UniProtKB/TrEMBL annotation:
Gene that this sequence comes from: hemC
Note: The porphobilinogen subunits are added to the dipyrromethane group.
Keywords for the protein's UniProt record, in alphabetical order: Porphyrin biosynthesis, Transferase
Lineage: Bacteria, Bacillati, Actinomycetota, Actinomycetes, Streptosporangiales
Protein name according to UniProt: Porphobilinogen deaminase
Domain spans labelled Porphobilinogen deaminase C-terminal: 220-305
GO CC term, one of those recorded: cytoplasm
NCBIfam families the record matches: hemC
EC number(s) given by UniProt: 2.5.1.61
Length: 325
């Protein structure tokens, strides 16, 4: 079976994990085929070359042309809309969904100097950093995780924020100085999870791939992406969304956050101030049966929009435009 993967170290590592898991479960041999995507070659700001999906479309085209049998993506990078002729055949067990800080000498966010420069291309991370420490500056950066880590090592930046799961996949959790709890920095919808896609008409393969599906992860990311899709339709502010199963039940808990760009000038500790005009953060939580994951996401979005999420900002909204991994 030919597995289509992006060529970054992170992508090849996660594709290798999926290949091993599949071989374990099905006894079938998997060959990894590297595919170069527009997101990997373009020097333009990702937002200028079409935003979401730049990492994903080349793999999907290669799938539809029959050059590969299935593809593995970071689930966080998938656009929320369905793709014609393509099925999400499996969502394997999720890795750590949290964001992590990498700074020299193990410095945590609180230890960084006043006015520290922290690299991230994600408005979601930039705004939440500002809420945690209003004096730091988020510096937009591009390039894959290794390139970003080098900017900290070389002193060009005081720190970077990256997904812990991505750092684990490239073998660099040793560089992590702080892991942000989801309450302090709500992860991007789908962060830490993988998507395994095949052609919709390839039902035999879809059945094989389903052996590595993890229903609890699928339910959680379904709720997160439903929240994101409904918010994307109503506003274009940075969005965090994170769902977990409620222990011992078939219930799902979902937290959402929408941030204003002016969160950078907002004071920490003044977050949940109600639906007052001009506030920079809308946070909501909800719970439902896991079977109702889609509805849980859009109902939470509706409440957030009613609380003013749509007014928070216009512009760039997603992690999917960030990092070449
Ligand atoms: N948009 C890039 C991207 N897509 C997935 C990951 C990390 C791994 C993951 O979330 O599964 C990253 C890099 C990052 O956010 O640090």
């Amino acid at each position: 079976m030919r597995l289509g993967s992006r060529r970054s170290p992170m992508a090849l590592s996660q594709s290798g994990d999926v290949a091993r898991l599949l071989t374990e479960r099905t006894g079938r041999r998997v060959e990894i085929v590297g595919v170069t995507t527009l997101g990997d070659v373009s020097r333009e700001q990702l937002t200028q070359i079409g935003g979401t999906g730049v990492f994903v479309s080349a793999l999907r085209e290669s799938l539809l042309r029959g050059e590969v049998d299935f593809a593995v993506h970071s689930l966080k990078d998938l656009p929320t809309g369905a793709a014609e002729g393509i099925t999400l055949a499996a969502v394997p067990p999720r890795d750590d969904p949290r964001d992590a800080l990498v700074a020299r000498e193990g410095a945590k966010l609180a230890d960084l100097p006043a006015g520290a420069r922290i690299g991230t291309g994600s408005p979601r991370r930039a705004a939440q950093l500002a809420l945690l420490r209003s004096d730091v500056t988020a510096v937009p950066i591009r390039g894959n995780a290794n390139t970003r880590l080098a900017k900290v090592r070389d002193g060009e930046l005081d720190a970077v924020v990256l997904a812990y799961a991505g750092l684990a996949r490239i073998g660099h959790t040793d560089l992590v100085s702080e892991i942000f709890e989801p309450e302090d920095m709500v992860p991007a919808p789908g962060q830490g999870a993988l998507a395994v896609e095949c052609r919709t008409d390839d039902t035999e393969l879809a059945e094989l791939l389903a052996t590595i599906d993890h229903p609890a992860t699928r339910a959680a990311v379904t709720a997160e992406r439903s929240l994101l899709a409904a918010l994307e339709a109503g506003c274009s502010a940075p969005v965090g969304g994170y769902a977990t199963g409620v222990a011992g039940t078939e219930r799902l808990h979902l937290s959402g956050v929408v941030l204003g760009v002016r969160a950078t000038s907002f004071q920490p500790g003044v977050l949940d101030v109600g639906p007052a005009a001009g506030r920079m953060v809308v946070r909501e939580r909800g719970e439902a049966d896991a079977a109702d994951a889609i509805r849980l996401g859009y109902e939470l979005a509706a409440r957030m929009l009613a609380l003013g999420a749509a007014d928070l900002m216009r512009g760039e909204n997603s992690d999917r435009n960030d990092a070449h991994d």
